[in-house]
Structure formats: structure tokens, C-alpha cells
Amino acid sequence: MDKQFWVDRYNKGDAPWDLGQAVPSLVSYLETHATQLLHQGRRAVVPGVGRGYEAALLAEYGFSVVGVDCAAPALVDAMRIHATFAHKIKWIEEDFFAFAQHQTMAFDLFVEHTFFCAISPSLRSDYMDAAATLLCSGGYFIGVFFAHGAPGGPPWTTSYDNLMGYLKKSAFEVEWLDDIANSISDRKGQELLLVARKR
């Protein structure tokens, strides 16, 4: 599960998590909550950004976005696909955990889609800590989590109880965690939407 694993997946065109668009539940959420989120601030970060569809969606709403990914081929594609947002999105090729350790900017919004399910479950507590480190006080953590229930991975599954177990030990206060109504057909009943805020 090192950097080369993900580079090879993108080079082979083996990226089934890539929907070719922003995840529908995030699109819907921003349609009704973007103003509230922008009131908190405009600095957003997307871990495991891939080809950048979520980052571009945030840029459309006026966020200044940092997209982090260890796979250079994904970022090359992202810069090409979303060239119109070059002034709004900074693409960083780096391991997310290394990025979180040295990053000095405090973000207002942290957006997750398929990164949590891509990392080893043994890193999930570290992931929550890193997300909290990157966010300013009161900053929002919005995530779409894959709860497919199958063994093995990636993608490694999660569940409501599993996520709540990590969140209860974290710096986040959960505002919403529930099933998603408008998942794509292949993921119906297998996704959870989280909205949390850093204490």
C-alpha cells in the first residue's frame, strides 16, 4: 500500500473509485450548505484528491483548495481536467500524513471521499488526528465513507459504529452521520455521510 501501488493503479487505468465527477452526496450537500461553510472560511483541503473532482467542486463554490495525493499520474490528470481552476487549487504530491505533520496553514474545511477506505485500518486513528491538526477551531470535516461490509481491501469497509468509535476519541463533534440517499447505483446502501466540526 505504498506510493508505487497507487501510481501503478492510475497508470494501468485501474481506478474504480474515480467516478469521473464529484460524488453526488457532496454535490447535494454543498447546494444547500455552501453559504454556511463559506461563512466559516474559504480554505479547504482534500486528502487523497485523485483526479480532483471534489477539489474542483469546492473551487466552483469559491473555496481556495489544496489537494493532496501521493500518486503523480492522478495529479497530472487533475491539473489537465481542472485547468480552469488553476488559480483556485494547489495540487501537492505528497503522503497525506507527512503533509499534515509539516503543514502550518489551518484549514476551514476538510473534505473526504475514498481516502479513509484506501488507507490501512491501522492508520485510522492517526488519520483522525491528522484531520484535526489541519483544521482550525470550528472547522468542518465533511466525508463520504464507504461502508460496503466486504472483507479485505482496499477499499476497506467502515460502518456507523466503527466511525463513531474513532470520532468519540477525536477532536470532532458530530453533527450528522447517516446513510446517503443519492449514492450512485453501485454504491446504494453502502455509503455514509459525515458532517462534523472541530471543537
Describe this structure in words.
This protein is α/β, with parallel strands linked by helices. It has a single domain (3-10, 29-198), classed as Rossmann fold. The protein is 36% helix and 26% strand. It has 7 helices and 7 strands, in the order ααβαβαβαβαβαββ. It has a 7-stranded mixed sheet, sandwiched between helices. Helix 4 (72-81) links the parallel strand 2 (64-69) and strand 3 (89-93). It is globular and about 40 Å long. The N and C termini lie far apart (32 Å). The mean pLDDT is 96.
CATH topology tier name: Rossmann fold
Mean pLDDT: 96
Rg calc: 15 Å
Count of individual domains: 1
Quick take:
This protein is an alpha/beta fold and 199 residues long.
Task: Explain the layout of strands and helices.
Layout (H helix, E strand, L loop, with lengths): L2 H9 L12 H17 L2 E5 L5 H8 L3 E6 L2 H10 L7 E5 L2 H7 L4 E7 L10 H11 E12 L13 H9 L3 E8 L11 E8 L1
Parallel strand pairs: 1-2, 1-4, 2-3, 4-5
Antiparallel strand pairs: 5-7, 6-7
